[in-house]
Fold this sequence. Notes:
The structure holds 2 protein chains of 2 kinds. By secondary structure, chain A is of the alpha/beta class. Chain A has helices at 58-66, 87-91, 110-120, 125-138, 154-166, 184-201, 212-218, 236-243, 289-299, 312-321; strands spanning 7-22, 26-42, 47-51, 73-78, 94-98, 172-176, 204-208, 221-226, 229-234, 247-253, 266-272, 277-282, 302-308. The model of chain A has no long low-confidence stretch (mean pLDDT 88). Chain B is mostly helical. Helices cover 69% and strands 0% of the residues of chain B. In chain B, helix 2 (26-53) packs antiparallel against helix 3 (62-83). Chain B is globular and about 55 Å long. The termini of chain B are far apart.
Amino acid sequence: MSEEPVVEATALRRDFVVRRPVGRLRRERHVVTAVAGVDLTVRAGEAVGYIGANGAGKSTTIKMLTGILVPSSGTVRTCGLDPVRHRRDLARQIGVVFGQRSGLWWDLPLAESFRVLGALHRLPDSAWQARRDELVERLELGSFLSTPVRQLSLGQRMRGEVAAALLHSPRFVVLDEPTIGLDVLSKERLRVFLREERAAHGTTLLLTTHDMGDIARLCDRVLVVDHGALVFDGTLPGLVSRVGGERVLVVDLTEPVAPLTDVPGTRLVGVEGGGLRQRLSFSPESTTAPAVLAEVSRRADVRDLAIEEPDVEEVVRRLYAAGPR
Amino acid sequence: MAETVHAWTPWTALLRSRVHAQAAYRTGFALDLVGNVGIGLLEFVEIYVIFTRVDSLGGLTAAQALLVFALANIGFSLSDLAVGHLDNLSEYIRAGTLDAYLLRPLPALAQLVTSDVSLKRLGRTAIALAVLAVALPTAVTDWTPARVVLLLITPVAGAGVFSALFVVAAALQFWVVDGGELANSFTYGGSYAAAYPASVFALPLRLLFTFVVPAAFTAYLPALVLTGAPGPGWVPSWLGWCTPLVAVAAWGVALLTWRAGMRRYTGAGG
Lengths: 325, 270
């Protein structure tokens, strides 16, 4: 692995000119700043979560890193290249997955898409076929490999998208909302795959998400962007301790019990069904989910449980409430 | 150990996948094909109706005018087959498809061109070929080797000119939001004009369609050479041989416009 950072951006800025109608005919010119001076370094092998509210500038940043957009000012180098000028060289080294857009052909089955992508990247047959077989196995694509993409479920299609973006074994993978809309099982499968991919190939990951679970499971570093500027750069525990982001353990009990107000390190935030379902909020710093569960189990018979992570909007909101850096 | 990967491998793979995808929907394809035959017929009927009213159109006899119609339509339908989908560039932009192209190690325009092949347009080509077969024996009486060559290169060069127009029209969509309709009036309007002899238009329009939108080059001027028809006095007959040059020039303009459009899209220019 080279010493050179995979991404190095300095004072990255991007403005858009927007024309808004004023009255019937006149249109007024507005300059909207999507990214306002972001400094960003991603080292080789890192897994970085890039979070922020909608419209905070995440997608614009990704487009500048990958060569789709030119920065209004500032500099960016990805894999040591100027992304726009060396777009095609860069494309050989990066893989990009957009959760809400498709890099596949809707009228082709995945098997056919992989063949075309192998050709697009000018990979020898033996190379892309070996990689395809690896991806098919690890992402469990085998059962729907010859179904046209438009007939796949969202979870199947996303796994297909990820496989397509990784077919040329990129060393830097960017995922924009990869788990959006996926069910719990599909999410988990994708996360496990990405962890394995990192472990096996030392792949560098940058992902945007609204799901704190993605960050917790995948990333060792978190960046929070708000109104186009970086407002946090550190670890997830560091972020949680800054904002006091609390997790909520939801327990379904076999019989109604009195409100569980006395579980150490927790706060009871909800009781439903006359005590059948209770919600206990806790800070990951003061206790852990297993400890809370053990305490609850001593008081009642737990039938089912779920853990709710603080969502990204909540974290960003609290980051502001906690005051500037 | 290294297997050779040919330079054209990506393009043949892309085009082959497009043809496969169309073959997968046979009924829909057949319906589209019939629809395109219908469009070709309708345009032919239009010309026919005009000729039942007037004896000659722009100094051409009926057969000569049909030759113009046929040449223009072969060229246009071939370009429509190859690049007609460029009309939908704003849709490609909206759906993020263009971004996906930018993330692949190939030129965006070439990917856009190879992203579809509308084989259904062959319906229109077939009508134009039929009209050509009918018109040719009457329109061209004095065959020379040079005229045979001209007859063969005109539709190909004409397809080149029309394709360049499609690219220009597509590139303009980078500036015009929801420009699909504007692009249509440009390219399909150009094709409409090419199917009529240029001299029926008033001078400003004639200049426009000869030099700005060089549609006359795709049919009318070569037809003058083929048939030996006099044509308007201001047209030197060698112009009928210039279609390939016009195609090259039009592509030059098209590529520059496309480049400027892409620079606008990525935000590199002004």
